[in-house]
Design goal:
Blueprint lengths: L10 E5 L1 H4 L6 H9 L4 E4 L3 E3 L8 E7 L11 H14 L3 E6 L3 E3 L3 H5 L16 E4 L2 E4 L3 E3 L8 H18 L3 E4 L7 H14 L4 E4 L6 H8 L5 E3 L11 H9 L5 E4 L8 H4 L4 H14 L2 E5 L28 H13 L5
Parallel strand pairs: 1-2, 1-14, 2-5, 5-10, 10-11, 11-12, 12-13, 13-14
Antiparallel strand pairs: 3-4, 6-9, 7-8
Helix pairs in contact: 5-6, 10-11
């Protein structure tokens, strides 16, 4: 028996807003998360989107996405505060996505503060993107924010700090910082330091997937509490995963996941092999300090989540019910210091 007190790592249940629907309908999902032994809830962006409808194409950081509002449930802010209160009443903490590397390409901020953005030589706002295989794909619904070299950087950084203050005052306990390694280290030091002076218990989680261990360590050094690791893609034999853990663990604890909103559903990937899906969750739960899984994992959902197209009608008939199994794994994780 381990009688020495220790801090439990984050066991995170990701409620994907477009699948869960209007905020007043989230209560059963929150209750199920608590019953399964999760101590954090993570929600993808809740704000009003641009014309593309992507959750990560934010047009108004202070308005709730209309798809998440019950027209008969009170004001959007009342519904948001009600959801936050439910999370806390159940004894969990709430984390939201913080997306500050880009905005929607049709955000009013572009007209209001053009100096906050990156512009091409031809006078067009720059769209971020990524390589798919060897071809560059531009995300035309997004506009790149110039956090590093904006001539109005002071006002831009203050805007982000005021946003964090606003959300923390609403009751959010932490932030998953999207593409954290693409944001200047100085901005993270400024945001995290200033926010913690007002909200000392606020926690910051860096999404660092796709960067090198050195980049991860540079991000962690700015004040993050946790990073997300890449153990999902480990084949249990190649040395890279344990090598990365040895490099990063002495500096910053990490969070594993068997599946996320950015990946295929594991039940689909493993052709409905329930025991294999269970094994992956056990591994992710015990490999590092924290663990995360998305809504529907417990039921073996197979339809991939989509940041534009997913709707409550995409809720699936369960392939199985692993809520009891997940609760037992989470209890095991919470029982020993070495798994936290």
């Amino acid at each position: 028996m381990n009688l020495e007190a220790f801090a439990e790592g984050p066991r995170i249940y990701n409620i994907f807003p477009l699948l869960a629907g209007p905020l007043p309908a989230w209560k059963p999902h929150l209750e199920r998360a608590r019953q399964m032994g999760f101590n954090w809830v993570f929600v993808n962006p809740l704000q009003r989107t641009g014309v593309s409808g992507s959750l990560y194409s934010i047009a108004d950081y202070y308005a709730v996405n209309p798809l998440l509002v019950d027209p008969h449930g009170g004001s959007p802010e009342e519904q948001l505060r009600g959801m936050i209160a439910q999370v806390h009443k159940l004894g969990m903490k709430l984390m939201m996505d913080l997306v500050i590397n880009h905005t929607a390409a049709d955000s009013p901020l572009i007209q209001q503060h053009p100096a906050w953005y990156r512009w091409s030589d031809s006078g067009e706002v720059i769209h971020p993107g990524a390589y798919e295989d060897t071809q560059w794909v531009s995300w035309t619904d997004l506009a790149a924010v110039d956090n590093a070299a904006s001539p109005d950087r002071h006002s831009l950084w203050e805007y982000w700090l005021n946003l964090v203050r606003h959300d923390a005052a609403l009751g959010f306990d932490g932030f998953r910082c999207d593409a954290a390694y693409q944001v200047p280290a100085g901005l993270w030091r400024f945001l995290i330091g200033a926010a913690r002076r007002e909200f000392p218990r606020l926690q910051f989680f860096a999404e660092t997937l796709g960067c090198t261990p050195n980049q991860t360590l540079e991000v962690a050094a700015t004040g993050f509490d946790y990073i997300f690791n890449s153990s999902k893609w480990w084949d249990y034999s190649a040395p890279w995963c344990l090598d990365q853990l040895r490099q990063t663990a002495p500096v910053v604890p990490s969070i594993s996941f068997a599946e996320s909103h950015d990946t295929e559903r594991l039940a689909e990937e493993l052709n409905g092999h329930r025991e294999a899906v269970r094994q992956r969750y056990v591994f992710s739960a015990l490999f590092s300090s924290g663990v995360m899984l998305p809504i529907g994992f417990e039921y073996g959902f197979r339809r991939r989540l989509d940041v534009v197209k997913t709707r409550p009608a995409d809720w699936e008939a369960p392939s199985w019910d692993d809520t009891d199994f997940i609760r037992s794994v989470n209890a095991l994780k919470a029982s020993q210091r070495m798994w936290n």
